[in-house]
From TrEMBL, chain A:
Example GO biological process: glycine decarboxylation via glycine cleavage system
InterPro entries: Biotin_lipoyl, GCV_H, GCV_H/Fam206, GCV_H_sub, Single_hybrid_motif
Keyword annotations from UniProtKB, A to Z: Lipoyl
Superkingdom: Bacteria
Residues with N6-lipoyllysine modification: 59
Lineage: Bacteria, Pseudomonadati, Pseudomonadota, Alphaproteobacteria, Sphingomonadales
PROSITE patterns xref list: BIOTINYL_LIPOYL
Subunit structure, interactors included: The glycine cleavage system is composed of four proteins: P, T, L and H.
Family: Belongs to the GcvH family.
Cofactor(s) required for function per UniProt: (R)-lipoate
GO cellular component: a single term: cytosol
Protein name: Glycine cleavage system H protein
Automatic annotation (TrEMBL), chain B:
UniProt xrefs under SUPFAM superfamilies: Aminomethyltransferase beta-barrel domain (SSF101790), Folate-binding domain (SSF103025)
Keyword Transport: no
Organism this protein belongs to: Croceicoccus naphthovorans
Example GO molecular function: aminomethyltransferase activity
Enzyme Commission (EC) number: 2.1.2.10
NCBIfam families: gcvT (TIGR00528), PRK00389.1 (NF001567), PRK13579.1 (NF010093)
GO CC terms in record: glycine cleavage complex
Name the record gives this protein: aminomethyltransferase
Sorted UniProt keywords: Aminotransferase, Transferase
Homology family: Belongs to the GcvT family.
Domain Aminomethyltransferase C-terminal as annotated: residue spans: 297-373
Length: 123, 383
């Protein structure tokens, strides 16, 4: 399983053709307390760069862009009752959705963990 | 990811006396009203809850502290605002509105009669919004008669201590002062050799105080207060969620130059005597609106579900748009999203069912009496 990162602070962990997407620890830290997460629907077709989810914090709503194209296979139902999981475990139980990749080559344009870490430090 | 909302235009950002103090305590600083201000420390939800249960210390030094003095000062202020300042006794505070010639609201502010017993002329202390203070000063200088002096107390900082344990904490710094004040009363005391202005007021719906202190003593005062277990520094993020739950309007959002006091549901700021006498800006127009009722009114709304409606979201009754949200968000004490906004008067009654459109979805909303969380102002002296 390999994890990739975007400049918009999403991560995607890929296992075969299936990717799990969430926002990074840096992103949740910037947003503050998350009170609601709007998730894509299962079966939705999504294209790389689309705003497919919205993370609502006490202060503001923020778009989450999908790092890859494909079909949404699952949205994290646990977030309906516990949106704060995105704060406490952003890169674990606070994942947002799973997507069946339609073009694995899209991953080539993303950052690996070391590159993302360097990117965040440059901000 | 990207934010749907961004902060104010970045101009020259100045630092306030407690800037380093906030940063040392882990505050996230953001530009607001021309200053670097602490938006949060540990998190808005925790800070909000702390203030409702204990005491929160807010730095509101970006706000403008003004002094208006001279013979006829009350009458001069009455020409610009609908408050009855001639009848305001020393030590009493009034919420008022600076009105333009059309009756639009230039700012909302607190006016305290701070005239000492032996003073030659009356003295009024004004606290105005940070984002509007320079315009306010210009407006006042332009319209106040020459014999009235306007001073900008820019060498003073302003702290707000808010919450059910605020009085107990303040009592340990300036013993006895809290007992002498009820809500909307102010006084002046000496603390560590300097003059401290103490007003029993605030912007959270909780009991509390606003403390005006010389800038070079602001750190000492803040340190003295947060030394108590029940006091923590709180950021502007929680100040906003607290004031929204308290049903208090935010200037520039819920009230602007385009809103009049009647539509804004701030008619309590038009004193009874002034309703009879008139004489404030656009008095005829405002009193006419007061008699006939406004076409739209500021109301509170509770929203089903957890998705929040923000400023600008349109409000519908069926297919027809009947209003707009002016501020909204997740209300930590309520435990769900709430909003404030203007709706046509026919839809403004408490209990009316409306819909708010957010990102293409229609959220079910109900017009709700404000405050959303009961005020806990200290209104009566202990027996």
């Amino acid at each position: 399983m390999t994890t990739y990162f975007t400049k918009d602070h999403e991560w995607i962990s890929v296992d075969g053709p299936l990717g799990t997407v969430g926002i990074t620890d840096y992103a949740q830290e910037q947003l503050g307390d998350i009170t609601f997460v709007e998730l894509p629907g299962e079966g939705d077709s999504i294209a790389k760069g689309d705003s497919v989810s919205v993370v609502d914090s006490v202060k503001a709503a923020s778009d989450v862009y999908t790092p890859v194209s494909g079909e949404v296979r699952e949205a994290n139902a646990a977030l309906a009752d516990e949106p704060e999981l995105v704060n406490s475990k952003p890169e674990g139980e606070g994942w947002l959705f799973k997507v069946l990749l339609s073009d694995a080559a899209e991953l080539d344009g993303l950052m690996d963990e070391a590159a993302y870490k360097a990117y965040v430090e440059s901000l | 990811m990207s934010d749907h909302e961004t902060d104010t235009d970045v101009e020259t950002i100045e630092t306030l006396p407690l800037d380093a103090w906030h940063r040392e305590r882990g505050a996230r600083m953001v530009p607001f009203a021309g200053y670097h201000m602490p938006i949060q420390y540990e998190g808005i939800l925790a800070e909000h809850a702390w203030t409702r249960e204990n005491a929160g210390l807010f730095d509101v030094s970006h706000m403008g502290q003004l002094m208006v003095t001279g013979d006829g000062a009350a009458e001069a202020l009455e020409a610009l605002m609908p408050g009855d300042f001639s009848a305001l006794k020393p030590g009493r505070i009034r919420y008022s509105l600076l009105l333009d010639e059309h009756g639009g609201i230039l700012d909302d502010l607190m006016v305290t009669n701070v005239t000492p017993p032996d003073a030659a002329a009356p003295e009024y202390y004004l606290v105005v919004n940070g984002a509007t203070k320079w315009e306010d000063i210009g407006h006042l200088r332009e319209h106040l008669p020459d014999e009235i002096t306007l001073s900008h107390l820019d060498e003073r900082a302003l702290l707000a201590l808010q919450g059910p344990k605020a009085a107990a904490a303040l009592d340990r710094i300036v013993p006895g002062v809290a007992d002498t004040l009820v809500f909307m009363q102010g006084t002046s005391v000496e603390w560590q050799g300097v003059q401290l202005g103490v007003a029993r007021s605030g912007y959270t719906g909780e009991d509390g105080f606003e403390l005006s202190v010389p800038a070079d003593k602001a750190v000492a005062l803040a340190d003295a207060l947060v030394a108590f277990d029940e006091v923590k520094p709180i950021g502007l993020g929680a100040r906003d969620s607290l004031r929204l739950e308290a049903g208090l309007p935010l200037y520039g959002h819920d009230i602007t130059e385009d809103t009049d006091p009647v539509a804004a549901d701030l008619t309590f700021a038009i004193s009874k005597a002034r309703r009879e006498q008139g004489g404030f800006p656009a008095a005829d127009k405002i009193l006419d609106t007061l008699a006939k009722g406004p076409s739209a009114k500021r109301v509170g709304m509770t929203i089903e579900g957890r998705m929040a409606a923000r400023e600008g979201a349109p409000v519908f009754a069926g297919q027809a748009q009947v209003g707009q949200v002016t501020s909204g968000g997740f209300a930590p004490t309520v435990g769900g999203p709430i909003a404030m906004g203007y709706v046509e008067s026919g839809h403004a009654m408490s209990g009316t069912k409306l819909q708010i459109e957010v990102r293409g979805k229609m959220l079910e909303a109900t017009v709700t009496d404000m405050p959303f969380v009961p005020h806990r102002y200290h209104r009566k002296k202990k027996a």
